[in-house]
Structure of TIR domain-containing protein:
Amino acid sequence: RDLRCLPMFLGGCRRLVILCGPTYLSRLWCIMEIFFFVMMGGRLGSIDLIPVIAEGHDGGDAMLAIVASFKYFDAAACTCFFEHDKRRMLTVIQTSFGSL
C-alpha cells in the first residue's frame, strides 16, 4: 500500500533532499524514493545530496564509503525488511528500465 502512494507524494515535490550516509544506498525504500522522484518528472539537478557522517567517525573514511556506495551500487543487493516488498520494488524497477 505504501509503495502505491509514494509516486503521488514525490510527484508534488520540486526538490528532493537526501541525507546520505554510508548505508543510504543499501536500503531499497531509499532507492525507490529517488526512482519515483525522477519517474514523476523530477530532474537530477533538483536532488540535493547532503552527506551525513556520524559524530566520532573519521569524516574522510565515511565520505569514501559514501562515494563507493554510489560507484558500486547494485539494486539487487539492497535490503528490505520484508522480502515480498523487495521483490515488488525490484519488479517495478525492472519493468521501467528493462533491467536492474
